[in-house]
Amino acid sequence: MSERTSGISTPVPGSGDGQAVEWGPVPDQVAITSGVAGRDSDPVAEPVSVEIPALGVRSRLDRLKLDAARVLIPPADPAVAGWFSGGVRPGEPGPAVIAGHLDSRTGPGVFARLGQARPGQVVVIGLAGGGTARFRVDAVRTYPKNAFPTAEVYGPAPDPQLRLITCGGAFNQARGHYTDNVIVFASELSQSG
Amino acid sequence: MLLVARFVRRLTGIGTALLLATAALVPVVFATSAASARAAVGHVRLAHLSPDTPAVDVYLYPFGGSTPKLVLKAVPYGGVSPYERLAVGQYTVAMRPAGAAATTPPVLSANVRVATGRAYTVAGMGPYKSIRLQVLRDSLALPAGKAGLRVIAASLKERVLKVTAGGETIEPSLRFAETPEYRQWPATSQKVTADASDGKSATADVSLAPGSTNTVVVLDGKSGLQLLALRDAAAPGVTPVGAVDTGLGGLAADSTAAIPAVAAGVIAGVIAGVMVGGVLLIRRRRAAAP
To answer: Which of B101, B121, B139 marks a domain boundary?
Structure first.
């Protein structure tokens, strides 16, 4: 049998003790694609709520849009989170993005406790029509806003992913903004309709 | 003893003042990277695209390991698995004849290095006599409003194809088992058509979402050519620029929010020093009392 390994030669289990099976070319094979995952999965309904039970975080979801410079406009209400409605819906393949305020001018905002999220915790997204999409936290990371990880947050993914974003770091009084973003990365656990 | 006490008092006063000064600036949300270390992940799917190779069992091993992370049994020509989430690192894909014991030598193997946030297809391609495992990269950054489209020719009967999408030629002369790059393509629904030199042809309606990567595989079907449209990865159609301003400062410096931070620190430090001094004074008096 001619060498068929491609790439670097590498140790692979299988030393030849087992019986070799009949193996040869088969002309006129017809492709079997019935087992292949379909492109058109059922469309996912719009997200309407977010909850992180372990942190006691819960909010309805407003729709967030981009301004003329394509910057994400944060939620109008510090007590209400929002999802980037020009992007991916939570539960669809790709990265869905939800943002919420760390604080108001006088006290905690809807995502005041987001930075306390830990890997393994569950995020529940309520969908229009009553379904849910559940995600599991993979990581919680802080980045300076001037080095925002755009590719990691918005880059393509084959599976449903979620990013929850709020502020952190020092509050710059002169500019009226925090210096950092705190981002929770999560991937899908399950969906129910 | 007294000297030490004085020294300690002074230190404590300064220490407390410093602590309170930094409190005005200190992060309210602590997200330590140690506590939240992440398993960086990528995605791999497996495909059998060799028209005259019989069904295979596909094994995915961590590089150098002997326990497979994934085993797919009896994958036929045309079979494409869903993406598997994998921790970043090196893996080995091995294919054995369907039904062969895991201890037999594989007929095919290749390494794939999985990087954070990337997706790959590892496909057995080419004719049986020279089948190779190709590692294809499935992730691509795209300009706003565009999709990525890639066509793979996996038909043994029609070795050269002309492929059009939405009426435009995407591959003028695509050869069997070539591994072309993604083309940036308008993100619309469109007909993809593969034409062979002998007049045989196949067509499929494919909707390309903005920001998505897509692969169309041309296969030998029951009655001529057959197109298999795969969705590779998805992303927002328009990628927002920069960071998100989601904080108004209420948790940053409480009642001293209106006062410049340094001044707040100094005031706090003075108060702290007076308090500490007062406590030690009381202690000394107590100690002095009979």
So the answer is: B139
Q: At which of B76, B107, B139 does a domain end? A: B139
- Domain containing B96: what range? 41-139
Residue A146 in domain: yes
| Cβ A13 vs Cβ B66: under 8 Å | yes
A168 part of contact set with chain B, CB < 8 Å: yes
Q: Residue A43 is which amino acid?
A: P
Q: What is the ipTM of this complex?
A: 0.84
What pTM was computed for the model? 0.75
Asked if A141's CB is within 8 angstroms of B38's CB, the reply is yes
Query: Residue A118, Cα to own-chain centre: how many angstroms?
Result: 15
Which residues does B8 contact at the CB level (< 8 Å), separation at least 6? none
> What's the Cα-to-Cα distance from B95 to each of B108, B110, B111, rounded to whole Å?
5, 9, 12
Residue B74 lies in a domain: yes
- Per-residue model confidence as pLDDT tens digits over B9-50: 555 555 554 554 444 444 444 444 433 334 578 899 999 999
Q: Is A177 on the interface with B (CB under 8 A)?
A: yes
